[in-house]
DNA sequence: AATCCATACAACCGCGTGTAG
DNA sequence: TCTACACGCGGTTGTATGGAT
C-alpha cells in the first residue's frame, strides 16, 4: 500500500502551466490569499490543478520579486559556500540567503552548473577554502519561514540576510544593523550568527525578519531570536 | 536538414513534520 | 494520546531548447 494521493490525479491537469492558469492563480491569491488551505484553493480559484502544484507554481514562479536565471558570481560563490557548510539537506535555507531566489531554483542551478564546478575545483581545494574538511564548521541550524502569528492573524515572514563570508563573529563585536546594543555573543554561546538580522514591519502587515535593503535604521533583533542565539547558539523553530 | 546529445528549468513525487480535532 | 490531514521540503523526472555532428 502506497501513500494516499493528495488529489484525484484523474481529474487534475498536469504538466506546464498556461498563461491563463498563471493569471487565474495569481489573481486569486492576490485577492484571497491561500486562506490557509492549498488543497481546496484550486477548486475555489476554478483551476483543475492539484493544490500542491498550485503552491509550487506560486512559490517558484508567480510570487512577486522572484528572480529567474542569471545567477551572479557572488550568488554562485554564496551557494557554494553555504553548500559546503550545510549540504544538500537544506536548500530552502540556502535559498533564504539569496533574495528573490527559490529553493527549487537554487537546487536546479546547483545540480546543473555548480555541482560540477564545485566537485572539479574542490578536488583542488580552491573553492570555499575556508571550509576545508579539517576545520569544524558552525552549523546554521534554522531559519524560520512563514510563521503564523495567530494572535494578530497575519503572517510573520522570516528571512536571513546573505552571509558573504559565514564565519564565526569576532568576540563581542558589534553587529551592524542590529540596533543600538547588540553585540556578538561569546563563541561558546553562539557559534554562528547571521549578521544584519533585522525586523521590518511593512505596510501590508507582513513582517520580515532579516535584512532589508530599502529600510534603514529600523533593524532590531527579536527577543526570542536573541534568546535562542544566546542559549542554543542558533535560532530554533519554536 | 535531420538526428543526437547535453543542458536548463519546470513540475511532480513521496516522505517527514506540524497541528487541529 | 492518537489520528488524519495539510504543508513544506529534497530528490527525481519530464520536457523544451540549443549546439554539435
Automatic annotation (TrEMBL):
InterPro entries: Homeodomain-like_sf, Myb_dom, SANT/Myb. It comes from the Eukaryota. Its main location: nucleus. This is Transcription factor RAX3. GO terms for cellular component: nucleus. It is found in: Nucleus. Keywords: DNA-binding, Nucleus, Repeat, Transcription, Transcription regulation. GO terms for molecular function: DNA binding. PROSITE patterns: HTH_MYB, MYB_LIKE. It comes from Cajanus cajan. SUPFAM superfamilies: Homeodomain-like. Residues 9-62, 63-118 form the HTH myb-type domain. Residues 9-62, 63-114 form the Myb-like domain.
